[in-house]
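[Automated response] Your request has been received and processed.

Submitted sequence:
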Amino acid sequence: MNLKKIKEIIKKGEGIAVEVKACKNALSKDVFETVCAFLNRSGGELLIGVGDGGKVTGVDPTALEQIKKDFVTATNNSQKISPTFYLGVEEVQLQGKSILYVFVPESSQVHRCSGRILDRNEDGDFDITDNTTLVTALYLRKQTTYSENKVFPYVKSGDFRKDLIARVRKMAVNQRSDHPWQRLDDAELLKSAQMYLKDYQSGKEGFTLASVLLLGKDDVILSVLSHHRTDALLRQVNLDRYDDRDDIRTNLIESYDRLMAFVQKHLSDPFYLEGDVRISLRDQIFREVVANLIIHREFLNPFPAKLIIEGTRVVTENSNRPHGYGLITPDNFSPYPKNPVIAKFFKQIGWADELGSGVRKLFRYSKLYSGREPELTEGDIFKVFVPLCGEDVRKISTPQATPQATPQAERESKLLDFCVEPKTRGEIQDFLELKDREYFRSEILNPLIAKRKLLLTIPEKPNSPKQKYYKNRG
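Generated structure:
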């Protein structure tokens, strides 16, 4: 969390979207009332370790880990917050003291805290459980704002794919061995995932659009949403049309599989070490891009979602209900879930991260992959541009323009000349007169390996202590 932003929140003071709690040694029960109210209203930011008037009191260091654990445990306990909602806690140092920051997004569900429904206004949290007018209005607002909650009363249990439910149950258990889904039957799993609701306008209840899109049979999906489609295109030679295409009209789980397979088919995966472990930069990047394309879209809009691979970039487009306009960066990004139920489902199976962390990860790995940052544009159509190096798209042989010489390019040239004969990591680092090993690995060595300008003498054992690196003369 940006320290400057924390200071701005404290300076702004409490309001409909900001709450502070002193909580020096333990969490007070009204912390969870605020979480519930934020979920039910428009989301908000919670600071623990800050008292009234913005005074930074801090959290007792000896109680810090227990408080974080208690917070996460309680928000995942249906006896406290129902339906449960996973929230992350960030520790921030301010004025020499530890405070905790929690971003609570608006939920598409109506939540209860210890059995009570709370809402939020400028004066704080208030209990509306016994006010039927306010409760009904809250349910209506959630259902009209989030299309994933649209109820289809004639969809039955037999309209879902049992094999797909078994698969996601196994994936969730692999993420967490004690996951509650392993003890639930298929219908209970869907209800546990908040995909069975009551429509307070018609009085009908049933499975939702989210349930059908995630786990429904193909004919059921196209019956309730005939325009549902995701288009994957490769434009490599024929820029007016396409060289390869996958027209995807199926559930969101297998849509994710097919989009990732399309990316893996057409984009290279350069060698990269994170520490001493090899990771796939390509998969790290497009795991975020593909999940965003699938999860955060307005499904009732007939505009088809697209993933287009071109010579110098990958572009994705999807219909959107914007909460702002213009370029998004990690510094100005305020995470807002477009389909919270679907997003939470993807998180349960390990295909999505905590809200907001995916954007930071995308910027980080894109810089390592191509040397450039991605562009994310919020609008009625949400667009993502991921830059590629010329050699990233397989089978492309168009020569790249020669860049002008820069100090960085000169250093790279000298390094490569030094490595005409194989050199160890230490020898190269000493040659460049660099002391910071992590900086050298992440900013210099790994990018050259990723671009195959440096090759490994023992490629089958990248972590070998005998490893050396040499210039690629190919």
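Summary generated for your ticket: Residues 3-134 form a domain with the Methyltransferase, Cobalt-precorrin-4 Transmethylase; Domain 2 fold (CATH 3.30.950.30). Confidence is low (pLDDT under 50) at residues 396-406.
If you did not submit this request, please reply to this message.
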